[in-house]
Amino acid sequence: MKLKNNNIRRIAVFTSGGDAPGMNAAIRSVVRTASYHDLHVFGVYRGYEGMIDGHIERLDKGDVGNIIQRGGTVLKTARSDRFRTPEGRKSAYDSLVANDIEGLVAIGGNGTFTGAKIFFEEYGIPIVGIPGTIDNDLYGTDYSIGFDTAVNTAIEAVDRIRDTADSHNRLFFVEVMGRDTGFIALNTGIGSGAGAILIPEAMTSVETLIRHLEKTAKRQKLFSLIIVAEGNGSGNAQKLAGEIKDRFPDYDPKVTIIGHMQRGGAPSALDRLIASRMGFKAVEALLEGHTNVMIGIQNNKMAMVSFDDAINKHKDIDLDLLRMAEILSL
Ligand code: F6P
Question: CA 146 to CA 133: how far, in whole Å?
Answer without folding.
Answer: 6
